[in-house]
Amino acid sequence: LITMVASLLSKLHGEEEDDGTNDLYSNATVCDADPLDGLAAHFFDESCVAALTCDDQAMLYLFMYEFLAPLRVEMVSFFQCYLLVNFMVVQQGGIPSTTKDDGKNTRWNLGCFAWSLWVSCVSFQWVTNLSSAASLTFSYISMEAKFRPCMVELESGDALLNMTLPVMLFHPVLLAQLINTLSLAHAILTALFVAGVKLDPRAWLLRYAVAMLGPYFTFGMGYFLVTLSFVFAYVFFLPLFLFGAVLTTALCLLLFKLIMPWLKGKEQDDQEAFAKYEKDIQEAAGEGCLSWCNGRWATLWCGNAVCGLPRFARAQLREVLWWFDAGEPDEDEDVLDNNAKTGWFGVIIFGIFSPIGAFRFISLRDDEERNKSVKTFADLNDMMRVAVLALTTVTLSPFIICSTWSAFYAYQGVGNDASMEFIADVYHHTFAIFTGSVELPALDFDFTVLWKDAWHDFITMWDFVKLAPDKLLAISKTLNGASFGFGLSKLLMSASAAGVVAVLQLFPDHWGLVGGSNVPLGDYAQTHADPGAFLANLSSLNDDAIDSFNFDFGPVIKKDEDSQYVFSVKEATISKELFRFDLNILARVFEEKLKGLDLYECSGMQGDIESLKDMPLTSCNLYNCKKL
Predict the structure, then answer these.
(1) Helix (H) or strand (E) segment spanning residue 417
(2) Is the separation of the CB atoms in 344 and 333 below 8 Å?
(3) Distances from the Cα of 241 to the Cαs of 202, 219, 381, 456, 553, in angstroms?
(4) Cα angle, residue 593 at apex, residues 592 and 595 outer, rounded to 5°
(5) What is the mean pLDDT of residues 288-299?
(6) Residue 433 CB: number of other CB atoms within 10 A?
């Protein structure tokens, strides 16, 4: 919001002192003898560019600036933070509930309306994100059509830039747009599940990711390997990759080792303090209509608004960062040990440092260790998988693209000196921050484009063959602004639904209009991905709860004709290591109706087996439950 306000103020300030020219264009239309320099100059013929009109030179300069700037190290780090913030914003506010909190799941019509608007906003956000990426792609097609005679060619007659297009699928801007759609798809799937649609969000998100990004990444990486560009990558550009990977690792460790432990450590105290406040405020409200309008109630409310601000901030951070969890190694494992390949260390070594981690994976001695490495990613929650994909691919982006450029530049046969000069220009461009030049993208947060230009530009961009590259770049930014606007609208829908519930609850006689509270994406996703959390949230065991549990985790709970239950992980469709809750939860949920218990190889289960003593168990398998 602060960034949006600053952006709008800068626009207003610019309107007051606008001289009718664009700064970037005014700098580029000087028509210098060498309008393109550094890395960009290697892709175009100097004499041909010099013969262009000033407007065309400015257009080419603008496009190459937007094309190459995202490969700089500070820009790569920016796009990683940009994606993480986007993931957090998607989680904010929760999904409007479609049912009432009356224990009967009665349909709440007002909530259904808010839910429909919420899903519509997220869907339009998905469309504008994807359209922005399409507009960027169209801008290259337009640039190639307009400036093809000036592009440097290989002996085959193909342009150097065109021959490296397959790896441009890893361009940071495209990655940011496409991977962000995964988080939006996750939100839509979760919302459908909340509304009662029978589907598995985890499975459908995986299908969507594979269908959308599978061929995309396979083609790009295949081209990178087949053209032997990986040789240039390891020989010349490993320092470039390592620098970006170290920055990414620092970002991950900040979250893994500082922020998330701090939030989890304060969680219990915050819950107790909030529960005490809720109890006191209800006592102060008393009974009867508008009885909450009294001095004690107002004092408590104002005191909580001020003194409870740190607690509120931590709660908001938990809501938007719940997914950043890679697990921890077992107590008897060391993260640097050959056998410990799960947890945050596995994510870093096999994800972020994948060009090096690949050799580490190959060197593992047996299948058990390799399976453990694969489990590093298989056991992650959905949003953490998306985050690891984002951090890994964006880190690899300059490494893959620059090495492929270098390979094809060398394949021209220009000689060692020219090839090394190209590599030097790549390093000078990507590490330009150390020369005092800092570049950050000018993101457009002007949500007013929703009712000004977004629809017109969306329709116009499909006729891209008639549009100039700069116009398509402008359309891409407009659609980014529209996406931001739909994101704000989504938050407004969540806040409106929560506000209606909060206001109606102030009235003891609320005429049955109070619906359910918003469903946090984090709480819901964790409940339906963690069997322990699912059981802990159950108030009573009924057939609907059993069906829902078995739908998420496999046919683990079975009810016999005598109304007794069997809990067996043999039929579970998830890893047995995810069964890591306390036995007291089973004792509370099943009470004295559990006659069979099979927790074979559930090494993460905790608690005291004394809690099972009152159950009519006829069979019990606790093999390798070493923490009990």
Answers:
(1) helix 416-430
(2) no
(3) 32, 21, 27, 41, 39
(4) 110
(5) 61
(6) 14
C-alpha triplet 397, 73, 485: angle, nearest 5°: 80
Answer whether 36's CB lies under 8 Å from 60's CB. yes
pLDDT 10s digits, 225-254: 999 999 999 999 999 999 999 999 999 999
C-alpha separations of 628 from 112, 574, 599, 609 in Å: 44, 21, 11, 7
Task: Transcribe 527-576 into DSSP letters.
Answer: HTT-HHHHHHT-SS--HHHHHHHHHHH-S-EEE-TTS-EEEEGGG-SS-G
Q: pLDDT exceeding 90 applies to what percent of the chain?
A: 34
Structure tokens of 447? 């949500």
Question: How far is CA 335 from its chain centroid?
Answer: 25
Give the pLDDT score at 460. Answer: 87
Q: Is the pLDDT of residue 286 over 70?
A: no
Cα 528 to Cα 191, 199, 389, 548, 550, distances in angstroms: 13, 12, 22, 9, 10
Q: 462-489: string of b/e by CB count within 10 Å (b at 16+)?
A: eebeebbbbbbbbbbbbbbbbbbbbbbb
What is the DSSP code string of 220-286?
A: HHHHHHHTTHHHHHHHHSHHHHHHHHHHHHHHHHIIIIIIHHHHHHHHHHHHHHHHHHHHHHHHHH-
599 membership: H or E segment, kind and range: none
Of 227, 255, 238, the closest CA to residue 353 belongs to 238
Distances (CA, A) of 576 to 291, 305, 477, 598, 604: 52, 43, 46, 11, 8
Half-sphere exposure (Cβ direction) of 385: Cα atoms closer than 13 Å? 17
Q: What does the pLDDT look like over 496-543, one tens digit per residue?
A: 887 776 666 665 555 455 666 788 888 777 777 788 888 888 877 888
In degrees rounded to 5, what are phi and psi of residue 606?
Answer: -130, 170
The token pair that represents 138 in the structure block: 């169209």
pLDDT at 27: 41
Structure tokens at 336: 């640097």
Alpha carbons 239 and 334: distance in angstroms, whole number: 28
Which residue carries 């000078």 as its tokens? 428
Q: What angle do CA 103, 531, 381 make, to 5 degrees?
A: 110
